[in-house]
Amino acid sequence: MFSDLRTTSTASDLTALPKAQIGLGRTEAETLTIAKGFAVKSNPHPSNGAYLEAKSGEASASGAFDGGAGYYDLTVGYFDETDGVSQMEVLVNGAIVDSFEWNGTSGNEKSSPASRAEYLVGDLWLAPGDLITLRGMGDGGEPLRTDYIDIAVDTSPPPSRAFVIEAEEMEIVSGFKVVSNGKASGDAYLQHVRRGTDGDADEARAAYTFDRAGTFDMTIGYFDESDGVSSMRVLLNGVEIDRFDWDSRSGGRRANEQSQAERVISNLTVVEGDRLELVGRGDGREPLRTDFLRFEPGTAAPRATPDLWYEDEGEVIVALNDGAANFTERGTGIMVGDADILSGDFDGDGDLDFLKVNSSGATTPGGVPGDAQFDVFTTLYENDGAGFFTASTSSIVTLTQPFDDFLDFAFKAQDAADVDDDGDIDFVATEASGQSIFLLQNDGAGNFSPLSRSPADLPEDGRALLGDFDGNPFLDVVALTDADTVGVGIFLNDGTGALTFRDSSSPGAESYGDGQVIDLDGDGDNDVAFAASGEGRGIWAFINDGTGMSVATFPNFSDVDETGLIGSFEAGDFDADAGIEVLSAGAVDPSSGVAPGLRVFDVVTTGTDTAFVLKSFDPTIEGLLVAHADFDLDGDNDALIVPRDAASEMTLLLNDGDASFTSAGVVIPPFSTSEFSFAPIVNVAHIDETLVLV
Questions:
Q1: DSSP state of 258
Q2: What are the CB-based long-range contacts (under 8 Å, 24+) for 327-336?
Q3: Last residue of a domain, one of 153, 181, 198
Q4: What is d(CA 224, CA 75) in angstroms, rounded to the nearest whole number?
């Protein structure tokens, strides 16, 4: 509405001026610090015998808030005369929080009692020292006569309200520095440091931890200059929620009005303690200048219901959730056989598909000693959006690797995600006889081709998962094998798909599995929780230092000895705090005094040490945990459990919001699967709805 006002920076106008104070109660407008355009005029009708009046052009005046941090109602008192339509904006730290027109018709053409008016800016977050600015332009015979500002404590705040975080106030994790600039909303922005300590540019990363809950439209203010193409990713609790390139060519080469830009992420739902991160790199002479985050109340998007898929009697079965944790099973007609099944939006149409992957045996081509070749066959089963699947695209990929007859040929497609940061879903596979990790890339339509082959010390079985362990957009691999090979090993992606071994952990004497890639310690990077068998059996964690290296200490629950059982686990946020909890219901060892039951552990970090601390124990719940999600859509994560020694029927454990669980009975009848990793493998996905973040 007021585009002619938005092109100037009041904050920069006030930089060298002493700041008036604005406290609770009334502050007379004539006591504010005038930046430009206003003059003090005496008149018998204002509250204290004077007001501010615009002389010509834009006028602005400000004061610093000297109250405590909190939510307030701010009221502007003014004279709304009938001989013009003035305009006014209310700014906090240079960011516009409200604007309004003086277009009343009930007064007259003079600054008289009949023309008195008030405008309320409700639910406004203010902190000590915040700069409050009134900025506007008179019109016709109405010269923006401004009387006072009233500040009152908001006694009934709604769950969501607008607020602004200046980028320079965020926690700088790496790669950013604060640079002063009068064109920025708070006179400064964050800028990518060109060179790190090793001579190369460090990744720029800044974080904000929410002190309130709500659903917001989040706007990132930045300077998109024309002399480079920077890139930024947005993470919430370690999960990427947006990414974009700064590729405008319409602005100039400087951080000014012409290069100001905004990126909006709609309907972002957060709770207190959630951690938001901005991660990126500058390019050319565009050093990722980031100005502010603005949060405006939004409407929570309808939440997709978490469904399930699993193997039963050799067929892929989907179990569709009605939103109240009632599941309807449906066969897909996809027979597993000796193939592997992966899920993801492989054709890029917004819903979840299945990919069937199998392989031929390895052969040694003539004239190529030491090499072996084999073919990988993929078939895409496309989702129609309602959870019905039809075979569509097929591809044949020929792979080559060193020949080693010590191990039997054992190719396995392991996990699917966007490995190469091109917007489509790829997958990772392993093959033991050639000691190989393969990355296969998707063309966006479900056709696959080789991206890379990397050497790794692998057994004939084992698992591999994709995740980011070093903070760049290219996904890395964690292999979960055994103590005689790589153990739990991190392999970093160099951006071309080439994987390099970084670090490993081997706490047990046998095998590792049931892995989850998750930020256990809340430091903004992914860790790995996993189960171990044999001596040292238990639930363990590889705690990442942010570069793919493990820290010196790591949490574990390993109270069972070689006569006991450890079972499976689920790691996630199960209570009202922002931390991660670990659930275990399968551990039992009478000789060590470990009774069966559901244990809830808090993941507690003190300094560099992370530990599993027992939060609660329920001896009435026992079995193997197979999945977790908010199945009843009540805002907290529930869990699914199967019996250890009986038919694999799934029982729903409903969460009360504080990690206290109650059995809601069997929701999936007994099923038979060949896919195990310390428990039957059950996958959570959105099957009959568009893929969304929840």
A1: G
A2: 327/667, 327/668, 329/668, 329/669, 330/387, 332/381, 332/389, 333/389, 334/381, 334/389, 336/311, 336/674
A3: 153
A4: 35
- Which residue in 417, 402, 415, 524 sits closest to 455, CA to CA? 402
What's the pLDDT at 106? 78
In this structure, the answer to whether residues 339 and 289 fall within a common structural domain is no
Do 78 and 129 belong to one domain?
A: yes
Q: Are 321 and 261 spatial neighbours (Cβ–Cβ below 8 Å)?
A: no
Q: Do 430 and 458 touch, CB atoms closer than 8 A?
A: yes
- The Cα angle at residue 416 between residues 414 and 421, in degrees rounded to 5: 135
List the structure tokens of 570.
Answer: 């689920």
- CA-based R_g, the chain, Å: 30
Q: How far apart are CA 122 and CA 129, in angstroms?
A: 19
Domain membership flag for residue 581 = yes
What would the pLDDT profile of 509-527 be if each residue is shown by its tens digit?
A: 678 999 999 999 888 889 9
Secondary structure element (H or E) that encloses residue 357, with its range = strand 353-359
What confidence tens digit (pLDDT) does each residue in 33-51 have? 999 999 999 999 999 999 9
Relative to beta strand 371-383, strand 353-359 is antiparallel
Q: Are residues 264 and 292 in the same domain?
A: yes
Q: In what order do the strands lie in the sheet with 499-505?
A: 463-467, 476-480, 488-493, 499-505
In a domain, 11, yes or no: no
Which of 91-100, 102-111, 305-314 has the highest mean predicted lDDT (pLDDT)?
305-314
Considering 244, 270, 297, which residue would you say is the last residue of a domain?
Answer: 297
pLDDT tier, 490 (very low <50, low <70, confident <90, very high otherwise) = very high
Q: How many domains does the chain have?
A: 3
What is the rounded CA–CA span in Å between residue 284 and residue 254? 13
Q: Are 635 and 577 in contact (CB under 8 A)?
A: no
Residue 452 inside a domain? The answer is yes
CA 687 to chain centre: 21
CB 356 within 8 A of CB 378: yes
Q: Tell me the two tokens of residue 251.
A: 């602005």
The predicted model gives 346-372 an average pLDDT of: 82
CA distances from residue 337 to 282, 313, 355 in whole angstroms, order as listed: 48, 10, 13
| 10 falls within a domain | no
Q: List, for residues 154-211, the tens digit of each pLDDT value.
A: 776 455 567 889 999 999 999 999 999 888 888 899 999 865 444 455 789 999 999 8
- Domain range for 530 is 307-683
- Coil, strand, or helix at residue 254? coil
Q: What SS3 class is residue 520?
A: coil
To the nearest 5 percent, what fractions of the chain are helix, strand and coil?
5, 50, 45
- 3-class secondary-structure state, position 13: helix
User: What does the buried/exposed string (b/e) look like for 277-311 if buried means 16 or more CB atoms within 10 Å of the residue's CB?
Assistant: bbbbbbbeebbbbbbbbbbbebeeeebbbbbbbbb
More confident residue, 1 or 45: 45
Domain check: are 559 and 620 in the same one? yes
Mean pLDDT value across the chain = 88
Residue 169, Ramachandran bin (φ over 0: left; ψ between -120 and 50: alpha; else beta): alpha
